[in-house]
Each structure stands twice: as structure tokens, then as C-alpha cells.
Amino acid sequence: DAGVIQSPRHEVTEMGQEVTLRCKPISGHDYLFWYRQTMMRGLELLIYFNNNVPIDDSGMPEDRFSAKMPNASFSTLKIQPSEPRDSAVYFCASNPGGASYEQYFGPGTRLTVT
Amino acid sequence: AQSVAQPEDQVNVAEGNPLTVKCTYSVSGNPYLFWYVQYPNRGLQFLLKYITGDNLVKGSYGFEAEFNKSQTSFHLKKPSALVSDSALYFCAVRGGGSYIPTFGRGTSLIVHP
């Protein structure tokens, strides 16, 4: 398997623009997670899905952030409008389900909002 | 609620010396414990985990970790550090029937030549 795939790897955009990050989880994994990593706050869980259904979005910072999982092989994280403080590395991770399983992380998308 | 503490932001060690990266946790019920490594500009990569059984767990790249239930700790160790081990290390815990792990803030390991 190719692992978790994320695109784009780097995104530079201007404040106010819409940004869409994409993720393809490992086939057969029932759980999908979106994380944000910054120097100040470390690794933050934004939202996670189970079988394509959003379960907990309490980590989503504000209404400018939204996430969808239209099918088992694709998820998006959208920021509209983007702000400079959204600059971070965004990771997608998947998990087969079950407490004993580790997270499989994608390579991340480095977002810079100017 | 579950939580993880990595008390050291940074650990410095000379190449060839043993290294320890500390982790303590709090969780209800039996813990599932994990270590991940993050190299620059990369995603987190699984190193090892404790689920049950032997308290000493061996993982990738010569790393091992010891589960200590009485001290609620899961320290990461390696007998002889390499410069290439320099990276950010994360401890994570999952327990109480939760499928969602809680990650520590990470510890930067710097191995000096």
C-alpha cells in the first residue's frame, strides 16, 4: 500500500482565499483524522471520522474550517477564508479501528497564508 | 480523561551514549501506549507500542521502551545513539475504550557527533 496520501505538499496562499487540503487514507482503514501542527500548540486533533461519518469536530478552531469525507477513500479539509494564523502543517492519519492500532500519518501539507 | 506528559522539550546526547526520552501518562483502565518519530518535513512514523504482556517493548531502529505501571511511565530508550536518531519524538496514550489517542507535545532529541 502507498500509505496515506496528502495533497498538495505545500500551499502558499493570500489571506482571504479558500484553501482545500486533500487526503486519501489507507484502504480498509475505518478511521480518518485531521491534525494541525504548530510550534506554539504542538499537534492538535481537529476532527475525526469513522466510516466516513464525522464523530468529533470539537478541535476545529472556528467556522472557517470544514471537513468532509464523501467516501471511504477521500477526505478534504477546507479553510474559507484563510488567515495568516492558519499557517501550519496539516496532517491526515488513518487507523484500522481498535484501540491497539497505531496511527498511520501522511506526509503533511505545509500551509502558508500571507 | 487521558493525558500524556513529556517533561523534556529537548534531550541532548553524544553519539554512542545511551539515550532516554521520558513519557508519563494518565488514563482510566488499561493503557495502550505508543511512540512515534518525526523527521524534518515528514509525517509522524510509528516506532513501537505497548498493548499487553512483556513490559519491555522492542521497536524499529533499535529503540525500546519500558512500561512501568506503578510509575505510569513509558520511557523510550536506545543503548547507543546515532546522529541519525536526531528527530522529534512523540508519546501517545489510548485507553478507557477510546479509539482516539492523546499525543504529548514532543521531545526534540539531538545527538551530537
How would you explain this protein's 3D organization?
The complex is a heterodimer of chains A (114) and B (113). Chain A is 0% helix and 54% strand. Chain A has 114 residues and is an all-beta fold. The model of chain A has no long low-confidence stretch (mean pLDDT 94). Chain B is globular, with a radius of gyration of 13 Å. In chain B, the strands form three sheets. In chain B, strands 2, 5, 6, 10, 11 and 12 form a six-stranded mixed sheet that branches. Chain B has a four-stranded antiparallel sheet with strand order 3-9-8-7, with no helix packed on it. With 113 residues, chain B is mainly beta. Chain B has strands at residues 3-5, 10-14, 19-21, 24-26, 31-38, 45-50, 56-58, 64-68, 73-78, 87-95, 102-103, 107-112. Chains A and B meet through strand 5, strand 9 and strand 10 of A and strand 5, strand 6 and strand 10 of B.
TL;DR of this structure?
Chain A has 114 residues and is an all-beta fold. Chain A is built from no helices and 11 strands.
List the helices and strands and how they pair.
The complex is a heterodimer of chains A (114) and B (113).
Chain A: E1 5-7, E2 10-13, E3 19-24, E4 31-38, E5 42-50, E6 53-56, E7 65-71, E8 74-79, E9 88-95, E10 104-105, E11 109-113
Parallel strand pairs in A: 2-11
Antiparallel strand pairs in A: 1-3, 3-8, 4-5, 4-9, 5-6, 7-8, 9-10, 9-11
Chain B: E1 3-5, E2 10-14, E3 19-21, E4 24-26, E5 31-38, E6 45-50, E7 56-58, E8 64-68, E9 73-78, E10 87-95, E11 102-103, E12 107-112
Parallel strand pairs in B: 2-12
Antiparallel strand pairs in B: 1-4, 3-9, 5-6, 5-10, 7-8, 8-9, 10-11, 10-12
